[in-house]
Automatic annotation (TrEMBL):
Coiled coil feature spans: none
Organism: Thioclava atlantica
SUPFAM superfamilies: NAD(P)-binding Rossmann-fold domains
Protein family: Belongs to the short-chain dehydrogenases/reductases (SDR) family.
Protein name as it appears in the record: Short-chain dehydrogenase/reductase SDR
PANTHER family hit by this protein: 3-OXOACYL-(ACYL-CARRIER-PROTEIN) REDUCTASE, NADPH-DEPENDENT REDUCTASE BACG
Pfam family, one: adh_short_C2
Length: 259
């Protein structure tokens, strides 16, 4: 399927690895030029080179922390006018409700709520003026089915979800579509570190931890970054103009909900 977005420009935040990289590759395969962000310059340069070599699009790497005002300014300055924004950042650490201070909450809100909101506020006016835009926010299945140990993540992502619910409907009349993609467990560095944490706490091998977590998913496996990226690219396509303010689960059936 031709996604109809060849020649458009996208910012992909936190995109040198994992789900963000999957989104970047899928957009590049659709002919979209990229401004690709992550903090670590070496992995970012390698990802940018790989994506450009595989697809022929232009990929501009911007090594910056997207959770800071300076980092966002660097990305936005390099980007100029963009048609597509993919918001993403690392997730907060797990813990107990009693573990977290005000500072911990502020850090989580900065990373997973206020940073994506600031990026949207920066690019939406141009998209509205030009009458076309797409924003995809990478959130989590925990928005639909909160995970007990991820209180910081649950809190910040719920806040972002609330902002998007209203904003998506305010900008839709201008041809701008904002949606959220909710990953369940995907085979990325983050999933591997959670497997390792479970293995250590339960005294089992990493393979056993992974097998136990896979068993909780009706599809009986982890998702892939390629599958995730394909859905992101579709949401950014010309075919997705009637999809507004949705929270789309990609979780192999793990959240058993009927609507
Ligand atoms: P990952 O494999 O660890 O990759 C994270 C990417 O984000 C890397 O490219 C990393 O590069 C970049 N990054 C992290 N913090 C950043 C920052 N402050 N500024 C700019 N770039 C940053 O993670 P993932 O599994 O793809 O997860 C992506 C998001 O989905 C996270 O918020 C995660 O909590 C959420 N999620 C993941 C899963 C899953 O199973 N994988 C499930 C639910 C939710 P640098 O470190 O070099 O900056």
């Amino acid at each position: 399927m031709d996604l109809g977005i060849r020649g458009k420009r996208a910012i992909v935040c936190a995109g040198s690895k994992g789900l963000g990289r999957g989104c970047a590759m899928a957009l590049a395969e659709a002919g979209v030029d990229l401004i690709l962000n992550a903090r670590g310059a070496d992995a970012l340069a390698a990802a940018a080179n790989d994506i450009a070599a595989a697809t022929g699009v232009s990929v501009t790497p911007v090594a910056a922390d997207i959770t800071t005002a300076e980092g966002r300014a660097a990305v936005l300055d390099a980007a100029g006018e963009v048609d597509i924004l993919v918001n993403n950042a690392g997730g907060p650490p797990p813990g107990m409700w009693s573990d977290w201070s005000r500072e911990d909450f502020i850090a989580a809100l900065d990373a997973n709520m206020l940073a994506p909101i600031a990026m949207m506020q920066a690019v939406l006016p141009g998209m509205i003026d030009r009458g076309w835009g797409r924003v995809v926010n990478i959130t989590s299945q925990s928005v639909r089915a909160p995970i007990a140990t991820l209180g910081l993540s649950n809190s910040a992502r719920m806040g972002l979800t609330g902002f998007v619910a209203g904003t998506a409907r305010q900008v839709a009349p201008n041809g701008v579509n904002i949606n959220n993609l909710l990953p369940g467990i995907h085979a990325t560095d983050r999933a591997e570190s959670l497997d390792a944490r479970m293995a250590q706490s339960e005294g089992i091998s990493v393979e056993e931890a992974r097998a136990r977590r896979s068993a909780t998913i009706p599809a009986r496996r982890y998702g892939s970054s390629e599958e995730f990226g394909a859905m992101c690219a579709f949401l950014c396509s010309t075919h997705a103009g009637f999809i507004v303010g949705q929270n789309i689960l990609l979780d192999g059936g793990a959240c058993n909900i009927s609507v």
